[in-house]
Amino acid sequence: MKEILLWLFDRLMTAIPGLLLRVFYSPSKVANEVKIELRGEKPINPCLGSSVPRIDLYLEVTNLSNLDLTLDRMLLDLWFGQPVLNGAILSRRDVPARSTVNNLFFRSALTTRQIQQIEPYLRESPPSGDISLSVHAYFNSKIGSLEVERRFERRKV
């Protein structure tokens, strides 16, 4: 019975115009129902020994709201004690209601200076600074644009 009611509610949500939906769902309320997390055991993965040194970032987005969302862009700011790189995931991804998209991936080649800043954090006793990743994600929905911010702090990779 619960499944039938949820299905009917979903059908109703897709039929109601966005302007009326804003009465029930404010953009800030929906933004609070979107969770951004680091994915996997090594979500920040520097590959400094490869022929082209690079860093890979793995993320996932969980939409706990009743509205379908589209990830428009995700801006990333990575620090290893100090700023190391700014990047963006610019490919649009659909994030259906009450689901998780776990295949968000960012890769960037590293310069010599970036490698020098990252290397101390790969040792057994990393420096006193933190590794931090700031994420600003922008979504489109039936009720308008949403912005979700998240910051992650770590001691070592």
Structure at a glance:
This protein has helices spanning 2-15, 18-24, 27-32, 112-118; strands at 34-38, 44-47, 54-63, 69-80, 83-89, 93-95, 99-109, 131-141, 144-154.
Topology-level CATH name: Immunoglobulin-like
Shape: elongated
* Structural class label: alpha+beta
Q: Biggest sheet, open or closed, and with what strands and sense?
A: 5 strands, antiparallel
Q: Say how many strands there are.
A: 9
Radius of gyration: 19 Å
Percentage of residues in strands:
over 45%
Proportion of residues in helical segments: 10-25%
How are helices and strands ordered from N to C?
HHHEEEEEEEHEE
Structure, described:
The chain has 157 residues and is of the alpha+beta class. The protein has one domain (2-154): ApaG domain (Immunoglobulin-like, Sandwich), CATH 2.60.40. Helix content is 22%, strand content 47%. The chain contains 4 helices and 9 strands, in the order αααβββββββαββ. It has helices at residues 2-15, 18-24, 27-32, 112-118; strands spanning 34-38, 44-47, 54-63, 69-80, 83-89, 93-95, 99-109, 131-141, 144-154. The strands form 2 sheets. Strands 4, 5, 6, 8 and 9 form a 5-stranded antiparallel sheet that branches. A hairpin with a 2-residue loop joins strand 4 and strand 5 (83-89). The termini are far apart. 20% of the residues are buried. The mean pLDDT is 89.
